[in-house]
Amino acid sequence: MSIRAKITVGAATACALALLAGPASAAAAPGAPGIGDPYYPNSGNGGYDVSHYDIRLNYQPSNDTLSGTTTILAKATQDLSRFNLDFLLKVKTVRVNNRVASFTQDGGELVVDPKGTLAKGSDVTVVVTYDDKPSTKSVDGYTAWKKTSTGALAIDEPDIAPWWYPSNNHPTDKATFDVSVAVPDGVEVISNGRLTGTTKQINGWTRWNWRSTKPQNTYSTFVSIGQFEVRQSTSPSGLPVVNAYAEGLGEFDGAAKASVERTPEIIDFEDDFFGPYPFEAQGGVVTGGIGFALENQTRPNYDTAFFRRGTNTYVVAHELAHQWFGDSVSVHGWKDIWLNEGFASYAEWLWSEHVGEGTAQENSDFTYELYPADSAFWDVLPGDPGAANQFDGAVYDRGALTLHALRSAVGDHAFFTTLRKWTQKHQYGDASIDQFISLAEQVSGQQLDDLFTTWLFTKGKPATAPGAEAAVAAKKAPTAEPKSRQKIKETHELLANGER
């Protein structure tokens, strides 16, 4: 999930990495100025693939100063004369394969000239040192870095990386991560993956070290810095669980913990439908100041607002479903966002049925009836909503309706087989809506173009609700509000109200 913010690429072109091989050859050229995403054409950079980021930083909360080094391991996919990284902070030095490189910065692009050819297929090490105040950086008037009274939150979608580490900032280029941040004693740092340890430093600071061993996209890589109560345990499946709760949650404290502490239980429930949990750790972070929840890999972050009316396991079920749909299998392009949000929203309906607060059919019936035919809700196309509507409520609710229509058409066996095959086939990679439709047709043996065209790509309210025949046979009142609906509605309003 996420918000607005898009890095605007400057005049400098984006390029790729590779081994220095002396003077530039005639074949060497800059890489593409972006990966080519139709919503954000300049997002990411062409010409190289990153395998690992080592982010080693120091952060001073009192003045919002972030300094340190990011080391990038990559492989060139073409002969390159220079390359780009997406980054906003002030850079001090850049080295490529241990040699000093020249660089320029413009419009959120760090353009690196290695002073030689980077040969196709070669391994490259890029070391970037920097020192700046992230909260002073903005794109089109928006700052994704969130300064708090006790620290800062690097959490957002589709863009957060450029505010704290240089990267190839697009979901199609995943990597493993080591994130190490030193802060004054008494301040906590939470990130993805496993906590490999903390180290006391002689200057009265403590270094927190986190490691992600499975491929991870850039926007789901985060740090939450501040005053936290950190709880560590082990899940029934043997995975480390780290939950963190901002100090001073006040009246939200009990409800937040009663929801997020159930993370292993909810994961165990969801992997029955989606396949084995794909990552090496579990957990969650609750804090104020973000205004949304986000599916950061292994450790979603939740704003306190989700717990203002008591426990809310629906938002936990939603964000944890993203561990499969969005994190393990990422969008190939941002227009494929339905593959994230529609699926996570449907997981809420499955959880609702599991806890006895409304079946998936009842939630589908109620959602279909909730929006009249003349509602603007039906004008947003989940299959291609446009950049401005990526996180519109229709992507969530109409997206979930699409999945229930598919389930009703092909039956439970084919439907859940499709979900499990999807997460297995594309694990740790990325995929598109067209690929999902193809798989659903292959598994079910049915031609499904009409169904997906109607629910994903056609404006207007479909004439028939998903599973209408089943609802009539069961004599269900389509306007009966499931007990879960208020929590789900509230969750989706917070997720899709523009504050992501």
From TrEMBL:
It catalyses: Release of an N-terminal amino acid, Xaa-|-Yaa- from a peptide, amide or arylamide. Xaa is preferably Ala, but may be most amino acids including Pro (slow action). When a terminal hydrophobic residue is followed by a prolyl residue, the two may be released as an intact Xaa-Pro dipeptide. This is Aminopeptidase N. Residues 51-219 form the Aminopeptidase N-like N-terminal domain. Residues 482-500 have a biased composition (Basic and acidic residues). Its EC number is 3.4.11.2. Residues 1-26 form the signal peptide. Its cofactor is Zn(2+). One of its GO terms (molecular function) is zinc ion binding. It is an enzyme of class 3 (hydrolase). One of its GO terms (biological process) is proteolysis. The keyword Transit peptide does not apply. It holds the Pfam family Peptidase_M1. Belongs to the peptidase M1 family. It comes from Umezawaea endophytica. InterPro entries: Aminopeptidase_N-like_N, Aminopeptidase_N-like_N_sf, Peptidase_M1, Peptidase_M1_aminopeptidases, Peptidase_M1_dom, Peptidase_M4/M1_CTD_sf. Residues 310-455 form the Peptidase M1 membrane alanine aminopeptidase domain.
